[in-house]
Structure formats: structure tokens, C-alpha cells
Amino acid sequence: xxxxxxxxxxxxxxxxxxxxxxxxxxxxxxxxxxxxxxxxxxxxxxxxxxxxxxxxxxxxxxxxxxxxxxxxxxxxxxxxxxxxxxxxxxxxxxxxxxxxxxxxxxxxxxxxxxxxxxxxxxxxxxxxxxxxxxxxxxxxxxxxxxxxxxxxxxxxxxxxxxxxxxx
Amino acid sequence: xxxxxxxxxxxxxxxxxxxxxxxxxxxxxxxxxxxxxxxxxxxxxxxxxxxxxxxxxxxxxxxxxxxxxxxx
Lengths: 167, 72
Fold this sequence. Notes:
The complex is a heterodimer of chains A (about 170) and B (about 70).
Chain A: E1 5-12, E2 19-23, E3 31-38, E4 49-53, E5 60-67, E6 72-77, E7 81-83, E8 96-103, E9 111-118, E10 128-135, E11 144-148, E12 158-164
Antiparallel strand pairs in A: 1-12, 2-11, 3-8, 3-12, 4-7, 4-11, 5-6, 5-10, 8-9, 9-10
Chain B: E1 3-8, E2 14-18, H1 21-61, H2 66-71
Antiparallel strand pairs in B: 1-2
């Protein structure tokens, strides 16, 4: 791993949890990466992961492309969805892999970020998607809060926050 | 018990605490709001797709070929 890629903090769930909140994120890096291996308790294959930034749910837009094993689709939204995630109707003990990338997160311009997400399911239907998102706020990002669309994150869900330095 | 996790990136401290009644109510309201907004956006997308399909059908009825419609 390049020495410009620094682990800031991580969390591994030892039981069901309602939210995972990274607070007091330092502004000393150029970019942030949040990696998630997650599964939520909702009884469906699709189980969205939501993200609040600096405690806010507002000023958000995104566009996405998605495949689900049968069809491809695309669309847009203004909610806090950042991934199709993974619900609890998928193969037992499987988790989606999600990466969020926030360039220039501590700058004074609006914050764009991207997401790639791949669910895991030993069946025909499994979701993967890419998001291009924007948080139309100029404040530095200092808090990222992960939430399930409903229910809880399940045991062994992990989230790790990395900082990227120029050199 | 529903628990929330806070990971303080400055100290590395991880705090696990039960949600308060107010937070549980807020969480339920947020989930309902998310579901409503998602349904609204999906309905908008479906309406847009239906309008597009209707427009294509009307153009075809006027005698345009699929290639001509696609070229518009």
C-alpha cells in the first residue's frame, strides 16, 4: 500500500448497530476514502446504505448506473442513498463491498464524491452500481455517518476511513 | 436495544451507546422520509419512461422508422 494512503479509523460491528458515525475527521489529507463491507437487516436483496455528511441530509444530488443480474438501469436522486448496499435476503454471511471517494474534502468548494458498490449473492439477482454524487456545501467534511435505509447494520459489517496525502 | 456507534477520528475512541427515545423517533421519521422520497423519484422516473415510450409510439404511428426515431 502506498504510504500516501493512511488509515484514519475503522469499526467492525460485533452485533447489530443502527449507525456508524465517524466524527472529528481531520482536514490534513487531500482526499478521503470510506470502505464498507456491509449487510443490513432489511428483508430484501437490495438494502441501501445512506450517508449523512456533517450531520446533514440536505443539499444532495446524485446520478447512478446499476446492474442487477437481469437489467441495466440509470437514474438520479436527491436523497442520501450512496449504494444499493445489501439486504438480509441475500446468501447468508455475504456482504457488499462499497467504496466512497471524496476528493478535496477539506476544500472550500462544493464536494463531489463517487461510489462504487458491488453486492454479493449466490443467485440470479445481485446489484452493482456506480454513483456520481454532489454535496452542495462548501464546508470541510468533518463527519460521515452511515445509516441503513431501514433496520440495522448486521454483525461483521466493517467500515474503514482512509486519508490520502499528496506525498 | 438499538445502539449507535461513534468513532472519534481525532482520538480513536469508539463509543457505543443506546439510542434515546428521541433518536429512535427521528430514525423512524428519517426512514419514512427516505422511503417516501425514493418512491417519489421512482414514480417520476417511471412517468418519464412512459412518456418517452408514448412519444416513440406516436412518432411510429406517423410513419417514422425506428432508426429515424433513434436519430432524433
